[in-house]
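Q: How would the structure tokens look for this protein?
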Amino acid sequence: MAGRAFCSIYFFLVKTPFLYDEDDGLGNNQEDYEAKILLGKGLDKFGYIGAEVGYRVRTGEPSDEYRYLLEYGFNVNENIYMRAKLDGILSAENADSSTSINAANLSNPLEFDSGKFELATGWNFDKNSSLAGFGIELTFTREIYGSNILQGNNIQFGITKVY
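A: Here is the predicted structure in token form.
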């Protein structure tokens, strides 16, 4: 988001397990329907800020979910950038089962709350370089709150490309 640009994006997502084996499907073998609104604002030399809110309707046993995300990022210089993000899910507490734990798969509960904090830094190669448009990124993510989740830290290394 360059300058004082403002953006607003609305989207709808459908997730369905129809291509998976019914006896060995991923997740809880349900369909999800999700609507989200993303708002973002450029802050000139101070970077950008973004917010996302949404609701996910889940068929079958799992609880519906309220979803949110807050993000702030900026360029340190022409090559280095940094980003911080809070990504959260709150259960609507309407699972079909009286228990929120999925005994068949403890890492996939029917109801859960989750809050992740993410820090990322990246390097974009110079525009005059043979690697122009490419970059590298290092991301650290930590579960900072939640219930019925597996807590831990996550470190990712990625190669980026701007088209």
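DSSP finds no helices and eight strands in the chain.

Residues 6-17+32-161 form one domain.

Upvote if useful.
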